[in-house]
Amino acid sequence: MAQTIWAKSALLPHGWADSVEITVDDNGDISQILINTAYQQGERHNVLIPGIPNVHSHAHQRAMSGLGERAGQAASDGTKDSFWTWRKIMYHYLDRIQPEHLFHISSQLYLEMLKAGYTCVGEFQYLHHNRDGNAYQNSAEMSLQCLHAAEAVGLGFTALPVLYRYSGFGSVDSLEGQKRFINDADSFCRIVETLQTESDDNADTSVGIAPHSLRAVDQPLLESVIDSIGKDNLAAIHIHIAEQTKEVDDCLAWSNQRPVEWLFNHFDVDQQWCLIHATHMTDSETAKMAISGCVAGLCPTTEANLGDGFFNAEQYFNANGNWAIGSDSHISIDPVEELRWLEYGQRLVTRGRNVLTSPKTTNTGRNLINGALAGGAMACGRKIGSIEVGYRADLVVVNDTHPRLYGRGEDDLLDSWIFSGNENMVDSVYVGGRKVIENGVHANEQQIASNYRQTLDQLVD
Ligand code: ZN
Questions:
Q1: CA of 328 relative to ligand 1 center, distance in Å
Q2: Helix, strand, or coil (residue 368)
Q3: In Å, how far from its chain's centre is CA 315?
Q4: C-alpha of residue 303 to centroid of ligand 1, in Å
Q5: Which of 141, 152, 254, 373 can bridge 169 by disulfide, Cβ–Cβ 3.0-4.6 Å?
Q6: What is the Å distance from ligand 1's center to 329 Cα?
Q7: How far apart are CA 396 and CA 50, in angstroms?
Q8: Is 277 a catalytic residue?
Q9: What is the spatial distance between Cα 69 and Cα 150, in angstroms, rounded to a whole number?
Q10: What is the DSSP letter of 134?
């Protein structure tokens, strides 16, 4: 049976509308939208906005978030605690995680995402094999745990199995600590096929690929994978790029080109691509990336936590570049904090205010939400991010009666949500028309949290 959801105020593609009745068909797609219509039946809310896509997640890292905050020893080159010491801690955890652990960690994580207002996740999953580095009987076992966790909690899901083969630029052999990640073209394509088959009948999922980085793949390998799967059969292609200055230096030493420059010189980068981080770019790389139509996958809280640097956002926004947000290492699971820090980083760099606005909207919070929705939908390769006929009914009810937002309407409400206070303002969440969060609560959250605690007990030494 089709259902109706009514809201006093809803953010539609062309702006805010009053008294909006949304009809959702049996498949979970929006089939009709009426505005200026008195409430008649169905669910009734005050403020509805589209659910926000989270385009970059490494689910297993949820289990170690906050554990990389002790000062480490100086590296051999004299630099203090760095990304590379964090990566050492992460590898230690990685060695222990079994399929059922990943399911429970992912379930807890995805539940937290829903409660924060994310309605789809791009899961950049690179833990493929068992602890000995051998394939599981079903080679897609680990990615399937994430898919099944998303299905169980009711979160939209874009599978991004990671292609990982080498440990450095120029096809350097992989390291012992990377044995759970490594595939060749054939074994990787089988994982993708399995995920495509398993998610075929679920309209809340899609499947892309994620070449881990230019360190981890080379041109022939990535080309052969894209050719054998067929680019049109992929929801998206995501890659980590230019996150750290060391990576830029290593790429220059290897190829005499910077990472983003190298990628554009060797691949036809278009709207199907999502470049994760792209922190260190020259002005000409920034312009090229914006013109290409690809999406910049920005993860401001993780980039801050790891000391990566600042994305060239002012120039990129001025050039109308597409972008989206991701919670990446899950040091924070909240679109509000990602968007706030995206803007605050730019304020600190430029010593100005309201940097990431656009000619279309001068309200910074609204502009940030607009960008994250449009770019997020592209990076997931799904019809989401917009309250529009034919799109998934992925909807977030914002709690406008809370004192923090009381008396605010439309764009002022979004600005206040993003920039004022820290309590969660997400009241209810729909994914594909199914109400998965009601009054801030998920029906299975106690069981999921209990399973998660047991999993952590098992992972601790
Ligand atoms: Zn990442």
A1: 5
A2: helix
A3: 22
A4: 10
A5: 254
A6: 7
A7: 6
A8: yes
A9: 29
A10: P
CA 61 to chain centre: 14
Residue 311 near residue 279 (C-beta atoms within 8 A): yes
432 vs 8: CA distance, rounded Å? 21
Quote the tokens at residue 369: 């939400």
Q: Which residues surround ligand 1, an ion (CB under 5 A)?
A: 328
Burial class (CB in 10 A: 0-12, 13-18, 19+), 356: buried
Q: Cα of 404 to ligand 1 centre, how many Å?
A: 33
Q: Give the predicted TM-score (pTM) of the model.
A: 0.96
SS3 assignment, position 70: coil
Give the distance (Å) from ligand 1 centre to CA of residue 409.
Answer: 35
Cα separation of 299 and 345, whole Å? 12
Contact assessment for residue 122 and residue 56, using Cβ atoms and an 8 Å cutoff = yes
Tens-level pLDDT at each residue, the chain (461 residues): 799 999 999 999 999 999 999 999 999 999 999 999 999 999 999 999 999 999 999 999 999 888 877 776 665 555 666 666 767 777 778 889 999 999 999 999 999 999 999 999 999 999 999 999 999 999 999 999 999 999 999 999 999 999 999 999 999 999 988 999 999 999 999 999 999 999 999 999 999 999 999 999 999 999 999 999 999 999 999 999 999 999 999 999 999 999 999 999 999 999 999 999 999 999 999 999 999 999 999 999 999 998 999 999 999 999 999 999 999 999 999 999 999 999 999 999 999 999 999 988 889 999 999 999 999 999 999 999 999 999 999 999 999 999 999 999 999 999 999 999 899 999 999 999 999 999 999 999 999 999 999 999 998 76
**Residue for token digits 């990943």?**
102
Q: What distance in Å separates the CA atoms of residue 329 and residue 243, rounded to the nearest whole number?
A: 14
* One-letter amino acid of 362: T
Query: 460 CA to middle of ligand 1, Å?
Result: 23
Cβ–Cβ contacts within 10 Å for residue 447, how many? 11
Compute how many other C-beta atoms are within 10 angstroms of the C-beta atom of residue 291: 11
Rounded to the nearest angstrom, the distance between the alpha carbon of 356 and the centre of ligand 1 is: 23
Q: Which of 45, 240, 280, 328 is catalytic?
A: 328
CA of 163 to the centre of ligand 1 (A): 13
CA–CA separation, 361 and 367 (whole Å):
6
Q: Determine whether 134 is exposed, middle or buried from the number of CB atoms within 10 Å of its CB (0-12, 13-18, 19+).
A: exposed
Name the catalytic one among 58, 277, 280, 442: 277
At 108, list the tokens: 């807890």
d(CA 390, CA 25): 10
Contact 105, 150 (CB under 8 A): no
